[in-house]
Amino acid sequence: MSQDSAQSGSETGSTAAALPEDLAKRLARARHWVVMTGSGVSAESGVPTFRDAQTGLWEQYDPLQLATPEAFARDPQLVWDWYRWRRELIARAQPNAAHRALAELAGLKPDLTLITQNVDGLHQRAGSPEVIEFHGNIHRNKCFECEHLVAESRGSTRRPPACLRCGGLLRPDVVWFGEPISSAALGASYRAVASCEVFLSVGTSALVHPAASLAQAALDRQALLVEVNPNTTPLSPLADYALEGSAELWLPTIASCMKQALS
Ligand code: OAD
After folding, report:
1. In angstroms, what is the C-alpha Rg of the chain?
2. Ligand 1 close to Cβ of residue 138 (< 6 A)
3. Ligand 1: which residue has its CA nearest to atom 9?
4. Quick one: DSSP state of residue 197?
């Protein structure tokens, strides 16, 4: 398998990114794409990525230590407060050009499957019709004890509310470290990868499994692997094309190339 890299306009000094011509042709020909997004896609919407330094109040905390069932069991208020802060950030955030380009691509490629590790709901707000939420959705709660699901309709309360069914504490309905992915999301993702011709990995460090294993499954079936990321990840050397730069730059470029090629 070959690996090509392309640079964004900002790195090359030009104003736009240019998709390699052979890549544009292969993307246009392929019917079924799987796109896997990570927190880098929402970075320019103002939602910090997991591995970026926290700001302000939360600077001193490591998100990898807050997003665990053990942390919630130890200090539910601390974990709840962190998620309340993230919920407020997300409520203020707007979908960016990358989210919008993916919604446009879904119109151009009806067989595109969008899988996201993000819990912010920004893909849906940008108009993506069907999104597999691999790590859940921050806008819902579920009971820490009985897993009863509750929509978070009025914004977060100051304290973690009690479950009306069992009296346990409610927590955000997101997948924490050490917890399994829902079998529905996992099954739908692997089924999509089993028939994809293109796997596009965007804005993810490709470090967290099993999400990162989907790219490997795509490689095993010899799908075209394309990565969009300003930084190198463990996936970069395996990718057929590593597009270096931001999602906001490359995804609109890909969408406009597909629009041209398919019109
Ligand atoms: P990470 O925080 O691990 O990685 C963010 C990635 O986005 C990095 O590779 C950055 O280089 C890249 N990035 C930053 N800005 C970008 C931009 N403008 N455009 C494109 N890429 C950009 O986030 P994830 O890979 O999403 O899981 O993390 C995966 C999972 O780990 C998360 O879903 C979360 C976290 O712990 C759970 O909560 C279970």
Report:
1. 19
2. no
3. 205
4. S
